[in-house]
C-alpha cells in the first residue's frame, strides 16, 4: 500500500472533493515513469477491501484529468470484476455508479 493514500482519500471525502490521479500522485510524492500505475494498483487493492467490507469505493475520489470528472476505465473494470457494476458500462450508467459512490463517501457511509 502507498503510504498516505488512505489519509489523502479520507481528506478528499471530508472536503467533498475529487482529485486527479496526477494530483494524488504528486501529493503522495510518487515518482518515476510508472507512478500512475503504482497508484492505480494501490487503488485497486483499496477497491477490493472496500467491496469486501460493503463500503463505498474510495477509489471513486480519484478521477482522470480528461474524463469530465470520472475515474479511468480501469476503475469500472475493477468494479465489474468485484461484481459491483456491468462492463462495458454505458456512459450514463457509469456516471450514475460513480455519483452513487461519491454520495455515499461524502455522507460518511
Which key terms come to mind for this protein?
5 helices; globular; 109 residues; 2 strands
How would you characterize the overall build of this protein?
The radius of gyration is 13 Å and the shape is globular. The protein has one domain. Helix 2 packs across helix 3. It is mainly α. The chain has a two-stranded parallel sheet with strand order 1-2.
Quantity of strands, as a count: 2
Low-pLDDT parts are none
SS content category: mainly alpha
Largest sheet: 2 strands, parallel
Brief account:
It is built from 5 helices and 2 strands. It is mainly alpha-helical.
SSE diagram, text form:
Elements: H1 5-15, E1 19-20, H2 21-27, H3 35-52, E2 62-63, H4 73-81, H5 91-106
Parallel strand pairs: 1-2
Helix pairs in contact: 2-3
Amino acid at each position: 500500500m502507498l503510504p498516505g493514500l488512505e489519509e489523502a482519500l479520507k481528506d478528499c471525502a471530508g472536503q467533498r472533493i475529487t482529485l486527479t490521479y496526477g494530483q494524488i500522485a504528486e501529493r503522495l510524492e510518487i515518482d518515476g515513469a510508472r507512478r500512475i500505475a503504482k497508484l492505480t494498483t494501490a487503488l485497486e487493492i483499496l477497491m477490493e477491501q472496500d467491496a469486501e467490507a460493503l463500503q463505498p469505493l474510495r477509489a471513486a475520489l480519484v478521477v482522470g484529468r480528461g474524463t469530465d470528472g470520472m475515474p479511468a476505465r480501469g476503475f469500472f473494470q475493477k468494479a465489474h470484476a468485484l461484481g459491483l457494476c456491468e462492463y462495458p458500462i454505458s456512459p450514463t450508467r457509469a456516471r450514475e455508479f460513480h455519483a452513487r459512490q461519491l454520495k455515499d463517501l461524502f455522507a460518511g457511509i
